[in-house]
Amino acid sequence: MPPTFDMSLIQRGARLRRSPYFEATLAAGCQSYTVYNHMFLPTRYDDLHAEYEKLLNGVTVWDVSVERQVEITGPDAFEFTNLLTPRDLSKCAVGQGKYVLIGAADGGIVNDPVLLRLGENHFWLALADSDVLLYAKGVALNSGLDVEIREPDVSPMQVQGPKSKEVVRRLFGNDVLKLRYYWFLETDLDGIPVVVTRTGWSGEVGYEIYLRDGSRGVELWDRVMEAGRDLGISPTGPSDIRRIEAGILNYGIDMTLENNPYEVGLGWQVDHDQEGDFIGRAALARIAAEGPKRKLAGVEIAGDALDLNMTRWPVRGTGPGRADGDVIGFVTSAVHSPRLGRNIGYAMVPAASAVLGTRLSVTTPDGERDATVVPRPFVDPDKEIPKS
Amino acid sequence: MPPTFDMSLIQRGARLRRSPYFEATLAAGCQSYTVYNHMFLPTRYDDLHAEYEKLLNGVTVWDVSVERQVEITGPDAFEFTNLLTPRDLSKCAVGQGKYVLIGAADGGIVNDPVLLRLGENHFWLALADSDVLLYAKGVALNSGLDVEIREPDVSPMQVQGPKSKEVVRRLFGNDVLKLRYYWFLETDLDGIPVVVTRTGWSGEVGYEIYLRDGSRGVELWDRVMEAGRDLGISPTGPSDIRRIEAGILNYGIDMTLENNPYEVGLGWQVDHDQEGDFIGRAALARIAAEGPKRKLAGVEIAGDALDLNMTRWPVRGTGPGRADGDVIGFVTSAVHSPRLGRNIGYAMVPAASAVLGTRLSVTTPDGERDATVVPRPFVDPDKEIPKS
Fold first, then answer.
1. b/e sequence A19-38, b meaning 16+ C-beta within 10 Å
2. Residues 299-358 of A with CB under 8 A from B
3. Which residues in chain A have Cβ-Cβ distances shorter than 8 Å to B240?
4. Does B2 contact A at CB distance below 8 Å?
5. Contact state of A11 with B33 under an 8 Å Cβ cutoff
6. Residue B174 touches chain A, beta carbons under 8 Å
7. Which positions in chain A touch B15 (Cβ < 8 Å)?
């Protein structure tokens, strides 16, 4: 057994919250945590490449209870939730989920949750790292809409990888295998109330189990582990290698409040022609017409294998005097893909420099590197998560 | 030199931001960071008791650039900012600051920033850990008020301790010594633009220097260190021991969105009779009339010295069968005060159990302990930060 992680390295006092699975993650030998939505997020139990291989070939379990929910209910919940996002939620059935953006008046991106529609007027938003609970409460104030907005006792875990299908089948029966992408099932595991969704942050086959009773986290964790024991199930952190291969974005770095959907390749999220109103409508129409000024480009970075970037790496345009040239943007995320044998990632650059084939230069901790704008996703585009 | 802190223990990728002082804090041997407002907050360079002694007797420097600012400008900035807080801002002059609460419609506390009034219609909120930028943008949407809300390039550091006066005098001249509590001075240090406030999170004499150009963080840090070298100036984390002695609350644990000002002893913040409107007015009037149902009590916990709590410790009422009794609340923060020789802290309990002298029982990691409700602050009440 490795020594238990020393939480005092990343916390002082009891301000940051622990997940219902926290004790299980510590016991499983979690070696690092980060902080997300004011909670601890387990990021690593093993070497990152070993975790990547487990995800590609087996089944992995991630404590992502940091994906806090905002629950919206009340007579005007549909209209209000539709206001929060540029997607047309009239196309989202009860029992269905959608990947959505939460928008600001200037077209900025507040968050990119998975939305679940549990009833005509009952929604959950499984959040990335920003206080949408506060944003939604602010928006509701003078909206004239009758809604209740709160954080329910709901804590997701992800079960990802090709063998995840068998694990959820054993736990929840054959019905769960019928789930289409982004649909969900409300069920229970011998009385532990859960929602099971066909979603994930990996590009692999995967599911999320949303625990609806925080007092039963370790119990659920143990049941999931037991169900996958003979399949080699392992707790891991989310894999940045795999999610970058899949072209998945990480809110807070690949997109922020400073970005609009068109800059980051998510313009398809904006349903301009919908009947309902939504925040940022005018700004997004203008940006769509004019085109975004900068774009998040897929990039391939030359040279030896790079570790995942810990800061934004400056990007320069090519041409004479390149290395001394002006910084035109920055790499948001980049990492070496073992199976591609290439360094891949994203760079936020002026739109003119985001054209496929554009040559760039990136300042990495290992020195200046050549880079090229390439398509994303990087791996098996047909197999990546559909736009739904 | 101690080994450089391994940031991969608490970060994955470049999502979380680094302070303008970050490189200086690493070089100074910072041994742990936590995350606050999506940024890294240095929490410790030395033993916590050694840092406490430095704060009590010398001068300490804290990188608190995590206190992100929300800047509110525009023709209706006064009216809008006054809406956000239950305090009457008509009593806040230009050049003056106030400790304020940001309120929700139900009376809940969204944040407890220091507000600075830089102009008639120009405000900064130096935030605790929640996304008030998003909340304020949400509130503004349908408010009908003409405001601009953004995060400016402003990064505070705290200079705290009895010798801080001499340090800021050397840096900024005698004028800064004339500052009354919560007032501020806009100035520069050989061209480095700053705002100097007489504020702090320590109960000691102290100042904050708000850097207004993030590219000059290390330069400012080095200047401050140089100015205090012969006084034994040291970088430290904020001291939980000292702030608890002073009765200062930590947003996110001692008070949260679930609490109203009356529960946490901040009812004096609510100016019911003001001319302007504010969010939560009706709810706070009702709570003021009825009295809060629970209260944050000062508590003294018996027995050997306790380390700062890392989780909420359950609190039980006294009486027969005490140890098996129902949990009636929890300790939010508690720590041993070396100079008092006592364990002190706060417990959120039903109002009837918050009466001075009430006996409680607390489940600590070291076992069940007797506790008593006592007045707060715990040290030199007359000398603690005035209510302004």
1. bbbbebbbebebbbbbbbbb
2. 308-312, 332-333
3. 12-13
4. no
5. no
6. no
7. 129, 250-253
Average pLDDT, chain B: 95
Question: What share of residues in chain A are helix, strand, coil (percent, to 5)?
Answer: 25, 30, 45
pLDDT of B368 over the 80 cut: yes
- The DSSP string of A108-124 is -EEE-PEEEEEETTEEE
Q: What is the pLDDT of residues A63-120, one digit of tens each?
A: 999 999 999 999 999 999 999 999 999 999 999 999 999 999 999 999 999 999 999 9
Comparing C-alpha atoms, which of A231, A74, A96, A85 is closest to residue A150?
A: A74
Q: How far apart are CA A215 and CA A233, in angstroms?
A: 23
pLDDT, tens digit (0-9, with 9 covering 90-100), for A129-182: 999 999 999 999 999 999 999 999 999 999 999 999 999 999 999 999 999 999
- Residues whose CB falls within 8 Å of the CB of residue A282, separated by 6 or more in sequence, listed in order: none
- Domains, chain A, in order of start with CATH, read 7-67+153-244 (3.30.1360.120), 69-150 (3.30.70.1400)
Distance (Å, rounded) from C-alpha A17 to C-alpha A342? 38
At residue B383, the pLDDT reads 55
- In this structure, are residues A216 and A205 in contact, taking their beta carbons and an 8 Å threshold? no
Mutate to test the interface with B, among A6, A18, A26, A35 (most CBs of B within 10 A): A35
CB-based contact B104 A137, cutoff 8 Å: yes
CA distance A161 to A157: 13
> What does the pLDDT read at residue B384?
55
Q: B69 in contact with A at a CB cutoff of 8 Å?
A: no
HSE, CB side, 13 Å, CA atoms: give it for residue A292: 25
B204 contacts B162 by C-beta, under 8 angstroms: yes
Rounded CA separation A162/A58 (Å): 6
d(C-alpha B33, C-alpha B44), whole Å = 7
Task: Band the pLDDT of B321: cuts 50, 70, 90.
Answer: very low
- Reply yes or no on whether the pLDDT at B227 is more than 70: yes
Q: What is the rounded average pLDDT for all residues in chain A?
A: 95
Touching A: B residues 263-302, CB under 8 Å: 279
What's the CA gap between B83 and B278, in Å, rounded? 4
Distance from CA of B230 to the nearest CA of A (A): 30
The closest alpha carbon to A60, from A74, A50, A71, belongs to A50
Rounded to 10 degrees, the C-alpha dihedral A106/A111/A113/A116 comes to: -50
CA pair distance B116, B125, nearest whole angstrom: 7
DSSP assignment of B174-193 equals GGGGGPPTTBEEEEEETTEE
Alpha helix ranges (H) inside A278-343: 281-290
> DSSP string covering B117-166, please?
EEETTEEEEE--SS-HHHHHHHHHHTT----EEE--S-EEEEEESTTHHH
Whether residue A34 lies within 8 A of chain B, CB to CB, comes out as yes
Q: Is the pTM of this model over 0.90?
A: yes
Give B257's contacts in chain A (Cβ within 8 Å): 133-134
Q: Which pLDDT does position A325 carry in this prediction?
A: 73
Residue B381: per-residue pLDDT? 57
Q: For B148-199, what is each residue's pLDDT tens digit? A: 999 999 999 999 999 999 999 999 999 999 999 999 999 999 999 999 999 9
A360/A319 Cα distance (integer angstroms): 9
The number of residues in chain B equals 388
Q: How far apart are CA B252 and CA B258, in angstroms?
A: 10
Name the nearest CA neighbour of A279 among A23, A53, A108.
A108
Other residues' Cβ atoms within 10 Å of the Cβ of residue B273: 6
- In the predicted model, is pLDDT for residue A327 greater than 60? yes
